[in-house]
Amino acid sequence: HAGSSNAYTAESLTNYHFSVSPDNLDVALDRFSQFFIAPLFNESATDRELKNVHSEHSKNLQSDMWRWMQLVRNDANPKHPMNHFGTGNIETLKETPDRDGYHV
Fold it and tell me: How many CA atoms lie within 13 A of 10 on its CB side?
């Protein structure tokens, strides 16, 4: 249907978006909405997403903007939600939970 979809996570929200030719909007909107109505959390899809997050995190390590933002987070009041690490990686999202008995 000549479409695409993507998402990004900001500080306080995740934005999901897609594009499709106008003639296919009804079918595409129904299909896209199923990701939220009945998401599939199978192991294969979860592993792919973990790898995508890890890859994005690795890329961001070289970004001055991401480094600056982490300094801002580190300097925030420890009781404030801003004072946290801004992205995840394989260690924080899979290895640590597995080690602690949480299967992701």
Answer: 4
CA torsion sign, 84 to 90 to 44 to 102? negative
Asked if residues 97 and 84 have their Cβ atoms less than 8 Å apart, the reply is no
Report pTM. Answer: 0.69
Distance of CA 78 to the CA centre of its chain: 24
Stretch 40-61: mean pLDDT, rounded?
89
Cβ pair 89, 35 in contact under 8 A: no
Cα 3 to Cα 8, 15, 27, 68, distances in angstroms: 17, 17, 11, 35
Give the helix ranges, DSSP H, for the chain: 25-37, 43-60, 64-75, 90, 96-99
Q: Phi and psi at residue 50, in whole multiples of 5°? A: -60, -40
Q: Which of 14, 16, 53 is nearest to 4 (CA)?
A: 16
pLDDT 10s digits, 53-86: 899 899 988 999 989 988 999 999 999 988 887 7
Residue 86 DSSP one-character state: S
